[in-house]
Write a structure and sequence with these properties.
Bound molecules: zinc ion
Number of helices: 11
Distance between the termini: 74 Å
Number of strands: 8
Shape: globular
Length: 312
C-alpha cells in the first residue's frame, strides 16, 4: 500500500491528495464525530447523553440552580465557545442569560437554530401560551411554559427532533444516532406506560406549588395546582399572599405543598406549619436528588415521592 502510494506520488500528486481525503473520510464513517454539546439545563444534558453517547456533554446549570437566572460566568462562555451544539428549553426560559453568553462566546455555530442551536420548546406545543403580556403580570412565560421535560410524550417529540439535529450536524454517524434514538424511544415508551399505571392514584389530587415548574407533570398525571407560592411569576412569596394560600388550604382538599429542588423552601415551610400540609421537595431535574441519575430515574423518583406524600 505504502509502496503504491509512493508510486502515485511520482505519478500524480493530485491523486494522492484525493486518496488521503478518502481514507480520512472512511475513519469518520466508522465513528461519531466527538461533538461538543452545551446543555442549558441538566435534563437536556441527560437527553443528549442518551442520544449521542460519544459526545462531550456539558450542563450549564444543575438541578439546584434556578434556570431562569444564571450568571454569564467566564467558564460558561468558554464552554459555549467550544460548542458544536447548544440544547436549551427555549420559550424564553434562558432569555435572561443565553443571549449574553452567545454574544460573549462569539461562536457562530450556536447562534441560529438552522445550525447548532436547538430549542426544545420549538418542537412541541407549549402549555399556557399568552396572547398578550404586560409588565404588571410579572415574569411570565409568554411563549408558553418552558418547563416541558416532565411530559413524557413531549419529551419524546423533543428527542425525535434532537435526533434529526444530531444527524444534520454529524451526518456520517446517522446509523449510530438513529440506533440510540430507537433504543431510547423504545425504553421511554415502555416506561411511560409503567409510570402512568403507578401514578394513577395521583389523579385528581390538588397541590399548592412554587412557580409553574411542574405544570406539565401535573397536567400529565391529572393533578391540579390550586395555588402558587409566587404572588406573580418571578416574585418570592409575600406575607399577604401566603395568608391567602392559608385560607385556600382551609378548604381541606389540598394534598401537599410542592417545591422544586432549586427553590427557597421558607414560604412553603411557613405555610406547611400553619396548615398541617406536608411540604414535598421534588427534583427539578436530573441530579436534583440522589435517586435522579438520568431521565428515567428522575421520573421514577418524582412519582414515588408524590405517591408517598399522598399517603401522609
Ligand atoms: Zn419558569
Amino acid at each position: 500500500m505504502l509502496w503504491l502510494w509512493g508510486l502515485t506520488v511520482r505519478i500524480n500528486s493530485k491523486f494522492i491528495k484525493a486518496s488521503c481525503a478518502a481514507l480520512a473520510l472512511s475513519f469518520v464513517n466508522t465513528a461519531q464525530a466527538e461533538l461538543n454539546i452545551f446543555a442549558c439545563e441538566p435534563e437536556y444534558a441527560a437527553l443528549a447523553k442518551a442520544l449521542a453517547p460519544d459526545a462531550n456533554i456539558y450542563s450549564a446549570t444543575t438541578a439546584m440552580q434556578d434556570p431562569h437566572q444564571v450568571q454569564a460566568r467566564p467558564s460558561l462562555i468558554a464552554k459555549l465557545r467550544q460548542a458544536d451544539l447548544a440544547i436549551c428549553a427555549g420559550a424564553g426560559l434562558e432569555v435572561g442569560w443565553l443571549p449574553m453568553l452567545q454574544m460573549k462566546s462569539a461562536n457562530a455555530k450556536v447562534r441560529s437554530t438552522d445550525n447548532g442551536l436547538f430549542y426544545a420548546a420549538e418542537h412541541i406545543q407549549t402549555l399556557d401560551k399568552l396572547d398578550k403580556v404586560d409588565r404588571s403580570m410579572g415574569d411570565v412565560h409568554a411563549q408558553g411554559n418552558p418547563h416541558l421535560h416532565f411530559d413524557p410524550e413531549r419529551l419524546l417529540q423533543v428527542a425525535q427532533a434532537l435526533n434529526l439535529k444530531l444527524v444534520q450536524l454529524d451526518p456520517d454517524a446517522k446509523p449510530q444516532y438513529d440506533a440510540a434514538f430507537t433504543d431510547f424511544s423504545t425504553r421511554w415508551q415502555a416506561a411511560t406506560v409503567k409510570w402512568q399505571t403507578l401514578a394513577a392514584p395521583l389523579k385528581g389530587k390538588k397541590v399548592i406549588a412554587y412557580h409553574t415548574s411542574f405544570r406539565y407533570l401535573f397536567n400529565w398525571l391529572g393533578m391540579e395546582q390550586v395555588g402558587d407560592l409566587e404572588p406573580k411569576p418571578g416574585l418570592p412569596p409575600s406575607t399577604s399572599h401566603l395568608a391567602s394560600l392559608q385560607s385556600r388550604a382551609k378548604q381541606g382538599d389540598v394534598m401537599a405543598i410542592i417545591v422544586a429542588s432549586y427553590q427557597d423552601e421558607r414560604g412553603a415551610d411557613w405555610l406547611g406549619e400553619r396548615t398541617d400540609l406536608p411540604v414535598q421537595m421534588l427534583p427539578m431535574s436530573v441530579g436534583g436528588n440522589d435517586d435522579s441519575q438520568d431521565l428515567f430515574s428522575l421520573y421514577q423518583s418524582v412519582i414515588t415521592l408524590l405517591l408517598k406524600t399522598s399517603q401522609k
